[in-house]
Amino acid sequence: MKLMSDYLHEDSEGIWLTEKERDNLRISYRIKEIVFQHQSPFQHVMILDSFDFGRMLVLDGVVQTTSMDGHIYNEMISHIPLTLHPDPQKVLIIGGGDCGVAREASKYENVNQIDMVEIDETVVKACLEHLPAVSGGLADPRVNFIFGDGVEFARRSHEKYDVIIVDSSDPVGPAKQLFELSFYENLFQALKHGGILVCQSQSPIFHADVMNETYQRMSSLFPHTNLYSAVVPTYPGGMWSFTLGSKAEIDWQRTEMFQKSAVYVNKGILQRCFQLPQFVKDNLKGN
Ligand code: SAM
């Protein structure tokens, strides 16, 4: 397939995707096959088959999820709020185009509605067809695909959801507004009494500013805010953070009730992931 993308280059060792992480950091992945690529109205979408990480979703040249480690992130952002909430029935996912989060949420029998608001239908179609290791070919009747801007959708929702998960790309392009205080305020209003909001809050190593800002903004809205972390190999620096806001006191004993089929998450992970390294705790305190 012709190298139509600016993000790929070919040398004597083959085809490479180079992710321009930061001014002085680039990460390259050797690619076996360009499975899909398309310029959507929102971003450049690729599904690549890589030697070391299997198939991967790449948006505007940035690796979003892979068949090798996508389950870590998707399980961590889903099972923690869905286990800590006493009776999650209505779930809202903002973003989540690879369908991995919706796939995990559909493991909960008491969940009767999963609204997934994804701005780019191209991403969903590409992942359902070409990234089954992450999307699972999702076909659950409880999942409502709503193709539109999550910011607009949040403005129109009121006290409707038990759990809201913001599975956004990095705070650039269409996802930039998904990190704004006004967005979190609207999501707070969209939650029912006792509702829980989780959002991915970037790397504690390379994006501590975004992590802190997200934590402070959530803390200004929710009576109970916690940060938890996991290591996701494909994300820069490995360590990743998630910020959880709850309208009600959290019953931590609920972690004992986890029994879903998972590759990464178990009771121990649920109980320990909120234990943070000292530098992260110091960061959050503004030290
Ligand atoms: N789990 C991976 C991660 O955290 O990087 C993948 C996240 S998922 C692919 C991110 C999704 O957010 C993309 O499909 C993107 O199209 C979608 N997105 C970005 N901005 C959005 C917005 N304003 N409203 C709804 N979806 C948006």
Describe this structure in words.
By secondary structure, this protein is an alpha/beta fold. The protein has 2 domains: 8-66, Spermidine Synthase, Chain: A, domain 2 (Roll), CATH 2.30.140; 70-285, 3-Layer(aba) Sandwich (Rossmann fold), CATH 3.40.50. The protein is 28% helix and 33% strand. The protein has helices spanning 70-84, 100-105, 121-130, 132-135, 150-156, 181-190, 208-221, 267-272, 278-284; strands at 8-11, 14-22, 25-39, 44-50, 54-59, 62-66, 90-95, 113-118, 143-147, 161-167, 191-200, 224-231, 239-246. The strands form 2 sheets. The protein has a 7-stranded mixed β-sheet with strand order 9-8-7-10-11-13-12, with helices on both faces. The chain has a 6-stranded antiparallel β-sheet with strand order 1-2-3-4-5-6. Helix 5 crosses helix 6 (181-190). The mean pLDDT is 94. Bound molecules: S-adenosylmethionine (SAM). S-adenosylmethionine is lined by residues 57, 64-65, 73, 94-98, 117-120, 123, 149-151, 167-169, 174-175, 177-178, 200.
Q: What general outline do the C-alpha atoms trace?
A: globular
The CATH topology annotation of the largest domain reads as Rossmann fold
Number of helices: 9
The CATH architecture of the largest domain can be given as 3-Layer(aba) Sandwich
Mean pLDDT reading: 94
* CATH-assigned homologous superfamily of the largest domain: Vaccinia Virus protein VP39
In this entry the ligands are: S-adenosylmethionine
* Termini gap: 51 Å
Q: Strand portion, in percent? A: 25-35%
- The helix content is 25-40%
Major β-sheet profile? 7 strands, mixed
Radius of gyration from the alpha-carbon trace, in angstroms: 18 Å
